[in-house]
Write a structure and sequence with these properties.
About 70% of the residues lie in helices and about 5% in strands. It is mainly α. It has one domain. It has a 3-stranded antiparallel sheet with strand order 1-2-3. Strand 1 and strand 2 form a beta hairpin. Helix 5 runs antiparallel to helix 6 and helix 6 runs antiparallel to helix 7. The termini are close together.
């Protein structure tokens, strides 16, 4: 195994193991209160981690070039999954959103699969030269983003759009198109944010934290309390106070706040450093790919992981409005963990076949 592959696999495994520990730490009180079993969340996450590493192993040996011919079926399947979330009896409505498909034996968050599916399809599409592809690209993205925003899931829509635009312009698209698209995207983002009451509330909270605690400002305040309590070195592993029912979503979207509270600025910086290292390795692997498909696929996957991390961390540090985007490899959630580990498997396969 090449050095880049060893470092990538080791860093990813370290984050997953750390995530398992933090999920148990952050969830034990809430799990016992809600389910009478403090191991409820960690048991689920451990099972999903096993499936995720199985996916990683499979894709690390599966020739990524074969994904080129499978790109269209994978995309169509992902769009079908995005539609199924709205079908009664198949889609699962929970926490005010239609984001999951019930397969009886398991549930799948369709948008997580769509992230990887789009990386594969766009990499295959744009690996060859084609004139006049912008209208078709915008049409495809309009369809996918409309389905995801309708769930509603604005955070994931932003990540998918950023991922798609990056792949598009990495393929050699002219810069004037990028300059023209950005203002339109920004305007539409503000419009969609204001159309949905809960998104408008989050946007309002972002500009003014001094609102009633009955609004989403409560969530943001608890995050900031956790970050501030951690200080430089943290209160110590297992010693978080925010995990005792004060901080909402403390095992999913806001788990970084518990991390920061317990390990402080130094420990948080180390965790962020591992993410940065993985992203740099991803771009390094992509740049060494022997074909355009491998370069764009690796770049798309790396950008996907990078944007998910940036959006989560930025929302947890009040740099952007609060979002429901999980922290890769660490947050509780099966679909995201399995898809992200499978994506790492693809990167490992690209590395295996890359230039020395």
């Amino acid at each position: 195994m090449k050095r880049d592959s060893i470092f990538l696999l080791g860093s990813t495994t370290a984050l997953v193991l750390f995530g398992l520990f933090m999920i148990y730490d952050a969830s034990s009180y809430v799990a016992f209160k809600d389910f009478g079993d403090k191991y409820h969340y960690i048991r689920d996450q451990f099972f999903w981690a096993l499936i995720g590493f199985s996916g990683l192993t499979f894709f690390s040996f599966f020739d990524y070039k074969k994904l080129y011919n499978l790109a269209l079926p994978i995309l169509i399947f992902s769009i079908v999954l995005l539609i199924l979330v709205f079908i009664p009896g198949t889609g699962v409505y929970a926490l005010g959103a239609n984001r999951w498909v019930d397969f009886r034996f398991f549930t799948l968050q369709s948008s997580e699969f769509a992230k990887l599916a789009l990386s594969i399809y766009l990499a295959a599409w744009f690996s060859g030269k084609e004139k006049g592809r912008l209208p078709a690209f915008l049409l495809l993205m309009g369809l996918v983003l409309a389905l995801i925003i309708a769930e509603p899931d604005m955070g994931t829509a932003v990540i998918i759009l950023a991922q798609a635009l990056t792949i598009y312009f990495l393929s050699g698209a002219p810069i004037w198109q990028f300059i023209g698209i950005l203002p339109i995207v920004a305007l539409l983002g503000v419009i969609f944010a204001k159309l949905e009451p809960y998104r408008a509330e989050r946007l309002s909270t972002f500009f003014d934290f001094n609102q009633s605690v009955q609004t989403s400002s409560y969530h943001v305040r608890q995050i900031l309390i956790a970050l501030g309590s951690g200080g430089l070195t943290g209160v110590g592993l297992g010693n978080s106070l925010q995990k005792y029912g004060f901080l909402p979503e403390n095992t999913t979207d806001s788990i970084f706040a518990i991390v920061a509270e317990e390990v402080g600025f130094i420990g948080s910086a180390l965790v962020i450093g591992v993410f940065v290292f993985i992203v740099l390795l991803g771009f390094r692997i992509s740049s060494k790919a022997r074909d355009n498909f491998g370069k764009l696929l690796g770049g798309g996957i790396t950008v996907l992981l990078a944007f998910q991390t940036i959006v989560n961390l930025a929302s947890q540090t009040a740099l952007i409005p609060l979002t429901g985007v999980p922290l890769p490899f660490i947050s509780y959630g099966g679909s995201a963990l399995i898809v992200n580990l499978s994506a790492i498997g693809i990167l490992l396969n690209i590395s295996k076949q890359s230039k020395v």
